[in-house]
């Protein structure tokens, strides 16, 4: 679960970051702080190019953009992520309804121990929701398990699945990452119309195919990675690919 924090007070930003990092280290559940910043523009820039699962925002960011305005922009990008507000101004809680951002919680930063415990409580709830999303057939994500860690991957982020040299495992290829996990290819054949079994050992996301060399039966993906297609399945793949372009 990827987390982004935006808080204009550096000391408080550090404190929130440390609370979450300590919890993630103890639980070893894949929770990761992708970005912790005082600048809301950095958050928007990051969110436009990366999948984020949970945001922690101060309301008053000491910037022309408030935490509420930032959350409203985030909602346009992602309708299912969790958003948590942290502030010393309890009277501003009503703004979460005004901006219609469906916040997960509103934490008042008063006594140190109190808000730290509240952060942990809401973090557990956000992670619980994260796990539930991966089991929701209406949400286009693949949920994979790697030991004690569980990760949700958007369909659009997947380039291809291939059989691993290690028995009963698959390798999931993303733009700049490869993940090995236990699984069977047949479980991913019907993710969506864009996924195609091009070889007995490979299922490809047609959206990310850059080029098909029919003589070599070689697929080149948008990130430069390659996989092969079988002679028997090449014609169906070409039909899918041509309909995409």
Automatic annotation (TrEMBL):
SUPFAM superfamilies membership: CheY-like
List of residues that carry 4-aspartylphosphate: 58
Keyword Phosphoprotein: yes
The HTH LytTR-type domain, residue ranges: 142-243
Record keywords: Activator, Cytoplasm, Phosphoprotein, Two-component regulatory system
Domain of life: Bacteria
Entry's transmembrane regions: none
Residues covered by the Response regulatory domain: 2-124
GO molecular function: DNA binding; phosphorelay response regulator activity
InterPro entries listed in its UniProt record: CheY-like_superfamily, LytR-like, LytTR_DNA-bd_dom, Sig_transdc_resp-reg_receiver
Gene3D superfamilies: 3.40.50.2300, LytTr DNA-binding domain (2.40.50.1020)
Entry keyword annotation includes Amino-acid biosynthesis: no
Function text: Required for high-level post-exponential phase expression of a series of secreted proteins.
Listed name of the protein: Response regulator transcription factor
Organism: Savagea serpentis
